[in-house]
Write a structure and sequence with these properties.
This protein is mainly beta. It is built from 2 helices and 6 strands, in the order αββββαββ. Strand 2 and strand 3 form a beta hairpin. 14% of the residues are buried.
């Protein structure tokens, strides 16, 4: 049964995860939306300023296998935003839910 679960991907929804990442030179406030992207064939997830195009606006990247596995699923909705802002970092919240079919 465990092997079947590994092959079909994550099954527990909603998935929630928070990340403390450096904010770089960008200005954020609580509630701001952030884009999250999973680099293909890796466990690397990247956070981007909302509205940025073609790689511009990179805030930070990190490896996280669990979150990456959820993001690889084409049947999910993803939301990511700023939960808290400190002098040098932002606490981001990621929520991944299953799409209604």
């Amino acid at each position: 049964m465990r092997l079947l679960s590994l092959l079909s991907g994550p099954t527990k929804f909603p998935f929630r995860k928070s990340f403390l990442i450096p904010k770089g030179d960008y200005q954020f406030k609580e509630g701001d939306a952030i884009k999250i992207w999973n680099k293909p064939n890796t466990d690397t997830i990247s956070f981007y300023v909302k509205g940025s195009l073609e790689g511009d606006g990179l805030i930070s990247s990190l490896d996280n296998k669990t979150t990456s596995n959820y993001l690889k699923n084409p049947d999910v909705n993803v939301s990511c935003g700023v939960l808290k802002v400190t002098k040098n970092n932002i606490l981001t919240g990621v929520i991944i839910t299953k799409k209604n079919k």
